[in-house]
Amino acid sequence: MVQEKGTISIHTENIFPIIKKFLYSDNEIFLRELVSNAVDATQKVKRLSSLGQYNKELGDLTIQVSVDEKAKTITISDKGIGMTAEEIKKYINQIAFSGATEFMEKFKEANDANEIIGRFGLGFYSAFMVADKVEIQTLSYQEGAEPARWICDGSTEFEITEGNKQERGTDVILYINSESEEFLQENRIQGILDKYAKFLPVPIQFGTRSESVEDGEDEKGEKKYKTIEVPNIINNTTPIWTKQPADLNDEDYLKFYRELYPFAEDPLFWIHLNVDYPFNLTGVLYFPKLKNDFEVQRNKIKLFSRQVFITDEVKDIVPEFLMLLHGVIDSPDIPLNVSRSFLQADSNVKKINSYITRKVADKLNELFRKDRKAYEDKWKDIGLFVKYGALSEEKFYEKAKDFILLTNTAGEYYTLEEYNAKVRDFQTDKNGTTVYLYTVDEERQHSYVQSANKKGYDVVVMDSPIDNHFMQHLEMKLDKVSFKRVDADVLDKLIQKEDVQTHQLTEDEQKMVKEVFDKAINNTNMKVEVESLSAGELPVTITMEEWMRRMKDMARMGGGGGMNFYGSLPDTYKVAVNGNHKLVQRILQSDDSHKVQLARQAFDLALLSQGMLKGADLTAFVERSVQVASGE
Fold it and tell me: Boundaries of each Histidine kinase/HSP90-like ATPase domain copy (predicted)?
């Protein structure tokens, strides 16, 4: 074979310094690129064989990755189609851009190594991020082909000579530079292969590993074991998302989930994605158990392209409200070398996003219709997803409104339509607005819930982190519906009817009661009002106005902007004194010091029912209660 030397391109003298300088932070992807190339070459020879265009034995197609620490080399070997010398010139020497100047201009827009490699056809050349010199030994599958060798030291000069490859396929040998010797450590290579190659469709072997196997029995008849070396195969070549749902059972899905997330609780259920028009997409999405907390996102959705891992930053592909799901998505329509700007602009990505939203809504609706009881049992776990989706995606809300559930303090579940039918006749105020009473903490607000129940009112539990926003959303969507926290005011004010209760106090008596309570409380953030309530209601009720409470709760959740203003305001409360309670008459008939003591005791009881009585005030209340009980 005639020896040949040359330069890769007359315009490319700055390519390699650019690759080394700008791509260095993402240098581990060199292995992903080279292994992916090896997989492509292997799949091509399999395809040619299936078409009858290659009639020899395919043999073992396992791709080998090996490290030689002494020689400071990494070798990726495949038994794919190989290349002739002419093909090396075509595929290796012809880089997909015309010159370094144009490259530098385009590079200004590129955000990361993935984008540069993808945009400029540099998959193979990513090897120079870690290598001073790269060598190719290859033998084409074509009849009569001769082995070829290509070598380049990172300058623009290359050399093609006769190679020494005896079997079909390609070896890419990287001579690792001094800055990248971390990649000569086996555990580093193992980690990269586990990350990017775990589900590639062709077996990838990285050395061997020890395995314990049975070795007969000992004198006592107990099994003996011995340790043997077996091939260290990195990947599962047929993950479940490549199979048909009909060929899988529940245990297959659970086993795969445990493989992805070995430390997570088993998921609630899953959705198998499989579409080939107008884009290609496969995958499995799992609903994890979340309860009411937004967990730290350790177990993210993983994005693949033809079984090659790309990223677990899938914000633009998966709707934001489903980012808490787990699982995998694989789409060949998303290039391996994907970038953030690509994801944001690509029309297929937008279609995938819409498709996933629809599939999730359809799955939830199916679960609700097929087995409502099982769906209700899962509601505490999935309610957060559904509410967040209803808030953030209009199309999702339109589907979800039929399977959004409200739960009342009796533990009963209602759809939005069912709940409105349950309460509208009795909880509609004089203005025609149906009031949904709610509690965020049933135990803490127990007395208020009980008062509502005594009047025949129903109370729903709204205790998830996003329920403040969710209630406002429903108030906009539902016709003449208002949510009011059960302790936001006295009940007769929360649901105002035509028949207003009156109390028997004169104006002077009302003024005196207010002055006594103001003196006993001595707190400008507590606004005392004497109310006309049923004699059976509590003597004192402490409330915070519904709108202000919501604003403050949203500020605590990080509402930003104007919300911060409400968060900085002091908490102000209304102290409703029941003018018709016998305790008020007792206060009016007591001497001045006893008046204040009784008022303070009634106020502290109200604080206690809200979990607001603490520290020195709680101690004083206990001591005062002991004195009252002792008749002192």
Answer: 26-180
